[in-house]
User: Fold this.
Amino acid sequence: MSPRPRPSAFARASVELRGPAPDTEVELSGEPLTAAAAVEGGPEEGGPPAPRRTGHAFYADEARRALGIVREIRAVAVARVPAPLFHGAVGAGVAVTAVLVRPQATGWVLSIALDIVLAVLTALAIIHYDLVLCEEETRPGPDSFILPVAAVISLAVSLAGTTDLRVNALAVLIGTGVIVAAPHLAAMRAAGQETPLLRQLREITAVLVCVPAVLAGAAPGLSWWVRGTVVLLGTTAGAYDAVRADGVPWRRTALAALAAGLATALTAAAAGGLFGQAAIAMSLLLLWYGLRGLLGGLSAGRLGRGPLLEYGAFIVAAGLAFGVAAAGR
Assistant:
């Protein structure tokens, strides 16, 4: 019996590209295979089948290997951050209550006591949401209540400092917006979904919290210790939230925030009321922003030449603003 002839090169290429005809035997590597086994790339019986050498999946895998992409592509579950409906309800309740208990309506002693209770209840509500209602993947941390509480204090200070309806309405909108936005932005950061735009919005919320504090710190009608206390609370909370967002441990964050707030508060206690309120408030805000950036970068270990020049420029601008205000007195 004569040996079976080997298939030509053209026949072997046809088998690799299109597969052999049904129920025919082919021989590609010295062993006769049936058509089904040739298409599958392995023997019919005995042992696991060899991986396919044709098809879209094979060519896609070869293309990835040629490009140097050798890792598996897997689906990644993205944590869903819910809309801040809870924080919106808290913010609306705080705004209405703060307006009702302002000093012009209840007196100073009762108003201060009720504002303290309101700040404590706001902190408890946000902590409860963070620990009980919030998903673990989007949980920002136990210190996410600091900026909303600072917003409550700033709102109370603004309502106590003026009877102008336009200023009060603006203070209510800012305070409510910070209470709603700050925990939601912190949850976005915890879920890994923070974008540069969201980071800028978080910076803006910290600055907005400090604006009523520095305005109160520059008010000529308040005693020095009241100005210093209000500025200390507002600027320390704003600096803590901003530095903490950079991933700095909370102990170093607290020290940096307290140093920035204390320096700004001492300046407000000493210079408040000496010049125009707007000029002093702007100078205090520039000073706080520069100190916050320098001390935050130092705490994070990232205080290079760029941040040093950038935030140092704000401190220099604050000094120039003080000088211009003093010269125009």
